[in-house]
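Take a specimen:
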Amino acid sequence: MDLILEGLWSLAIAAAQLFLQPFYYIAIIITMLIYRRQVVLERRLFHVRLHGWGRQTWRTVLGGLLAGLAVSLVFVFLGMNLTWEGLLCLWAVTLLFMLLRVRYLCLAYAVGSLGVIQFIIHFFPDLSGTGGIYEVVRIIRELDIPALLCLVGLLHIAEGLLVRWQGASFAGPLFYEGKRGRLVGGYQMQSLWPVPLFLMIPAQTAGGVLPWTPLFGGEAWQGGFGMMALPIMMGFSEMTTGLLPKDKARVSSGRLLAYGVLVLVLALGSVWWSPLVLVASLIAWLLHEGLVWYSRHEEQQRSPLFVHPPGGLKVLAILPGSPAEELGIQPGETIIKVNGVPVPTKEELHAALRINPAFCKLEVQNLAGESKFLQRAIYAGDHHQLGAILAPDELAPAAVRLQPLSLWQLLRPKRSARTTEAGRGPASLIAEPSTASVTVPPSDGPAAGA
């Protein structure tokens, strides 16, 4: 009982430290800015708001909290011998990668690189002395790389599950510049999860000793244990023009889960065969980059799904609570006729809806190519397209162009999400597709040996 109370007390102290320092709140604010920018883009392109940035923010905060608690629970048995110096080193490397490209904020790049550097340093055991460079060498040499690689693997497993759970629901429809300058419809799937971690670390205390010995840390656990609060951010960003959001989320989720499991297995195996540390470090770096590249290449090879076929109008998205949603129209389906009139263009759709201003009958072709017949009364105030957002045509006012997203663009979404008049080409900006797990500096929790 005393050990349980001590553990709960350490957890309470770590939680208090988490909420008393700013980094967790910064993560939430960045998440909010991402979703706020998505709403601005929707208003610019479609003159409506499909998502509420406040609701999206709190859903991701809840998802990140659940993920953090789950990963923290696993690390009760894995443990991590991590010092304040080691965490500062990890954060410094992460920031250096960020200067090259924002998506390199992913923890996999920093940990993988440090694992390779540590492996090289082990070939120079006499590399010691006093001064800046020797101090950095000592810190890198003492890093618990296998435990950090386990953290990378577990975080990507958690990210894969969150993408499966929430990824499709946060997808935002957009107009993209496709091949040969043709505009096509698509989705930007972008989510950030602020994740609070509570890592159990060995620490010199006057309290009890754990009845089990965590996998990492060895004899250091004989001196007691403590909790370290470590807020991080996990991020997921993909675009798709050839798949529905739920299908893209399922594919991306499966790859993230496989990646996380592979890194985790290799990191655990390094406990018994140390050369696997180098293999896991290289896999964490190279395979992560390979997944990003392959996703882009695969998307370029797919035929666009959201383009108008001959004689119909392809549905890109449906407004929540609209007549189209009540009728059961789904994204990816094609409107063929309205009130018995073929509608190959938007203008003819609007004209067909005006034939009977109080009622409408639709013929819609589903994703299987089968026709379904729908009907509904029309009321004052209903959306002029029944709430269906259609794929772009040659008169679309603007599209998005994939470019890296900066903090300035997040703070000034109306300026960065600018549009142009019809016929002048795409000008809106959006972040490049990537996946990322972003660390932030930890709270002042107990360090190993403190």
Summary: The mean pLDDT is 81. The chain has 13 helices and twelve strands. The CA atoms of residues 182 and 283 lie 38 Å apart. The radius of gyration is 26 Å.
